[in-house]
């Protein structure tokens, strides 16, 4: 049996896991695909780096082109990250008829349509299961498992780093900075962790899920994004008091043919299954018109869970190679994109206000909500040690346009000292 030769771009957290699985599970893998799978060449940035995996140094190169241009190599596994240079490597590899497996959500969210079009032209596979929610097979689920349904809502904790941070802040009272450092040491965070904590990584993943779920070309600029860097321990505590958990949630919502898509810290009712997803775990809740509610759970980051998805994609490519059907499975979005306006986007909100502690304040505040047609679910006032009082308000579903008007009005309302926090509420 002629071995299938694989070129690996990157030998960091994920690349190391890929080698461990390909070597450790070789017997099982080759029995599934009918031939051995061999990692033939590996591109790294630094040849001298001490690695925590034994690798034959003759396989290493610091030039990705040595891997891509090797005529013996059938499949390129890209786990080095990056956008611009990496895109060129992948396009060249496809041009040369090589199949691609990638974990790179940055690239797929920004240039996925170009890459998939090139793959189709060249009859090559491009699989990217590890790019969203690490070890959870969610991309395969949306493409295959739900091919028969109309997806109406996708709600996900799709960033392990931020879920790890929020969980430790909530359960252990740990500091944001300390937990971020720990997430970096554990290999969960991106090389620039700003993309994790500011929500960009999750936004990229939601753009990919939205494209697959709604069959339209969701671009990164369609996703409204805010991250967790301004979430305080106090906010988390207040959320808990009211029966919510704070989560960085991606929400893609469709009504008829219009959709909205966002990533933001969200207070999730404790009774919702996604509220109990903790640590580096991710979960993706999918609501299909026919199937109803479903939810998928697993590790969203880290060496072995992520590598599991990468190697599963590799197996899929090799099976297709054997069947001679590569390049037939790309999902081409075909629907015209229609984004909801601020008037059409509607959800519950939580507000924490610092206000003057005197008679009539509450009435003036509720009057503003009434003026913009925002009705309230609950209002809780607690005096604190200063002259101010704190008011926690949860609204019923309100349009984003009306909520913006309320907040704008509050900026100039003399009894409000400070709008301390505003969060979306789910469940
Ligand atoms: N870590 C995770 O949990 C997850 C990561 N991903 C994605 O997987 C990809 C890899 O992530 P991760 O393994 O964490 O990243 P790491 O930073 O740990 O590893 C990157 C690897 O790529 C090599 N590399 C980087 N740039 C180049 C270059 N220009 N030429 C040659 N080699 C290069 C590095 O070399 P050297 O070792 O010499 O520095 C390193 O081996 C990213 O796209 C990431 O977003 C997806 C899901 C989960
Ligand atoms: N940095 C990412 C890694 C996986 O995509 C995360 O924390 O989820
Ligand atoms: Na996945």
Automatic annotation (TrEMBL):
Positions of the catalytic residues: 205
Annotated binding of NADPH, by residue: 105
Positions of L-homoserine binding: 190
GO MF annotation terms: homoserine dehydrogenase activity; metal ion binding; NADP binding
Enzyme class: oxidoreductase
Pfam families associated with the record: ACT, Homoserine_dh, NAD_binding_3
Pathway(s) where this gene product acts: Amino-acid biosynthesis; L-threonine biosynthesis; L-threonine from L-aspartate: step 3/5; Amino-acid biosynthesis; L-methionine biosynthesis via de novo pathway; L-homoserine from L-aspartate: step 3/3
Protein EC: 1.1.1.3
Catalytic activity: L-homoserine + NADP(+) = L-aspartate 4-semialdehyde + NADPH + H(+)
Top-rank lineage group of the source organism: Bacteria
Gene Ontology BP terms: methionine biosynthetic process; threonine biosynthetic process
Name recorded for this polypeptide: Homoserine dehydrogenase
Species: Paenibacillus zeisoli
């Amino acid at each position: 049996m002629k071995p299938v030769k694989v070129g690996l771009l990157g030998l960091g957290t994920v690349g190391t896991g890929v080698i461990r699985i390909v070597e450790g599970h070789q017997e099982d893998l080759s029995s599934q695909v009918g031939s051995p799978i061999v990692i033939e060449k590996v591109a790294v940035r630094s040849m001298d780096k001490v690695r925590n995996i034994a690798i034959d140094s003759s396989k290493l190169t610091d030039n990705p082109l040595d891997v891509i241009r090797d005529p013996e190599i059938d499949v390129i596994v890209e786990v080095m990250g990056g956008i611009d240079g990496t895109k060129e490597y992948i396009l060249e590899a496809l041009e040369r008829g090589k199949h691609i497996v990638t974990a790179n959500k940055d690239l797929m969210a920004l240039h996925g349509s170009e890459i998939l079009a090139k793959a189709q032209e060249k009859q090559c596979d491009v699989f990217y299961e590890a790019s969203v929610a690490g070890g959870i097979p969610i991309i395969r689920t949306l493409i295959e498992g739900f091919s028969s349904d109309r997806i109406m809502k996708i709600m996900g904790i799709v960033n392990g780093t931020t879920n790890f941070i929020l969980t430790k802040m909530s359960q252990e009272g740990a500091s944001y900075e300390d937990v971020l450092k720990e997430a970096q040491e554990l290999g969960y965070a991106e090389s620039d962790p700003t993309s994790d904590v500011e929500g960009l990584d999750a936004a990229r993943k939601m753009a990919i899920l939205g494209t697959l779920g709604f069959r339209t070309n969701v671009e990164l600029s369609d996703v409204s994004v805010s991250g967790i860097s301004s979430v305080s321990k106090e906010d988390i505590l207040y959320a808990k008091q009211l029966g919510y958990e704070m989560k960085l949630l991606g929400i893609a919502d469709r009504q008829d043919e219009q959709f909205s898509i966002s990533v933001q810290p969200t207070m999730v009712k404790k009774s919702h299954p996604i509220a109990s997803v903790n640590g580096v775990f991710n979960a993706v809740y999918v609501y299909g018109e026919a199937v109803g509610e479903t939810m998928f759970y697993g590790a969203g980051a880290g060496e072995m869970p992520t590598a599991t998805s990468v190697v599963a994609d590799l197996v899929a490519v090799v099976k297709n190679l054997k069947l001679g059907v590569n390049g037939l499975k790309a999902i081409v979005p075909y629907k015209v994109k229609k984004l909801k306006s601020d008037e059409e986007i509607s959800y519950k909100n939580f507000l924490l206000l610092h206000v003057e502690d005197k008679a009539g304040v509450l009435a003036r505040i509720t009057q503003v909500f009434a003026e913009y047609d925002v009705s309230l679910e609950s209002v809780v006032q607690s005096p604190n040690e200063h002259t101010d009082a704190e008011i926690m308000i949860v609204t019923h579903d309100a349009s984003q346009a009306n909520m913006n008007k309320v907040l704008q009005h509050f900026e100039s309302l003399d009894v409000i000292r400070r709008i301390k926090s505003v969060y979306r509420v789910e469940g």
